[in-house]
Design a protein that fits this description.
Elements (H helix, E strand, L loop, with lengths): L1 E7 L5 H7 L11 E5 L3 E7 L5 H11 L11 H16 L4 H20 L9 H11 L8 E5 L3 H12 L4 E6 L2 H10 L3 E4 L3 H7 L2 E4 L20 E5 L16 E4 L1 H11 L4 H31 L2
Parallel strand pairs: 4-5, 4-7, 5-6, 7-8, 8-9
Antiparallel strand pairs: 1-3, 2-3
Helix pairs in contact: 2-4, 2-10, 3-4, 4-10, 5-6, 5-9
């Protein structure tokens, strides 16, 4: 039987996910697929039969229907990566293979045959939209960034498109920061200069893979002037106590997702089309499972 453990935004808040995600630990000796994103940690393993609710969940996740930002595109690549990593380590069971192959295909169908991803939001895009709604012009601000990854690069694309020029990037691996700084005409700094970076920033954006907070109240002791901080990391990069300091506005993933839900709507008919495709693929999957079971029974 295919089994799973799920910790995601649908059932847990940000703080609870940070605590519980550590409990979703895989037995490295057991073939499995582990999907980890900022909104979910999901572990799948086993062979044989698979429950309808598990199939439906995986297909809906791949389609972007279970995302905090409905229709977002990143989850498709994240599932592909999780599946590819599993294949590189293990010989997965036929059912687990088919489950993820079909999920990836379902996600592709949804994005090809519907407009659910048209104008789809992302955490990077919403971050810049929040600046716009607040009347903040990136061109006039000093922007400090901690972390180097695709989310940060996507954010930089949006910021520079809106005229941002005073960009300072910091990362534990300075070479990575330098490479990104060259592409976006920014300045790279080592993480050992974190206090200086924070001190001069009007806008601070953090998105590292650190397992603990890296921006704490003591890092803002010498900060003068207001600062708007976007913590896009999971687990969080910024200690929540930072948001209680005078002149500091701190927004985390939940804040950004709430803004998106309030301000960005998708047509119900596109969601309905996507859900219909998911149901079609579920039927096809179980037809395959039935044929496979009959074949095994006839050829033990």
């Amino acid at each position: 039987m295919i089994r799973c453990k799920l910790v995601n935004h649908a059932v847990c808040g940000l703080e609870e996910r940070e605590r519980l995600t550590l409990a979703v630990a895989a037995d490295e000796a057991t073939p499995h697929v582990l999907l980890k994103t900022c909104n979910r940690t999901e572990l799948y393993w086993g062979d044989g039969t698979v429950a309808d609710n598990i199939v439906r969940h995986v297909f809906r996740v791949a389609a972007g229907l279970e995302s905090a930002l409905t229709g977002e595109k990143a989850i498709q690549g994240q599932i592909k990566l999780a599946y590819a990593e599993a294949l590189s380590k293990y010989k997965l069971s036929p059912t687990l293979n088919r489950l993820f192959q079909t999920a990836i295909y379902t996600g592709k169908r949804v994005r090809t045959e519907t407009r659910i991803a048209e104008g789809a939001v992302s955490h990077s895009g919403v971050t810049v939209e929040i600046l716009k709604r607040r009347g903040v012009n990136p061109k006039d601000k000093i922007i400090g960034i901690i972390g180097v990854n695709k989310l940060i690069e996507d954010t930089l694309k949006y910021l520079t498109a809106r005229g941002a020029v005073n960009i300072f990037l910091s990362n534990r691996n300075v070479e990575k920061a330098q490479n990104l700084a060259v592409r976006y005409k920014g300045t790279a700094m080592g993480l050992d200069r974190k206090a200086l970076l924070i001190g001069m920033s009007d806008i601070l954006i953090c998105a590292t893979a650190a397992p603990h907070t890296i921006v704490r109240p003591e890092d803002l002791v010498q900060k003068t002037g207001d600062v708007l901080i976007f913590d896009l990391a999971f687990p969080r990069d910024v200690d929540p106590a930072v948001g209680l300091l005078p002149g500091v506005t701190l927004l985390n993933l939940e804040d950004i997702e709430l803004f998106a839900k309030k301000n960005i709507s998708l047509r119900k008919d596109e969601i309905a089309k996507a859900e219909a495709i998911v149901e079609e693929e579920i039927i096809k999957f179980f037809r395959w499972a039935h044929r496979s079971a009959k074949s095994i029974a006839h050829n033990p």
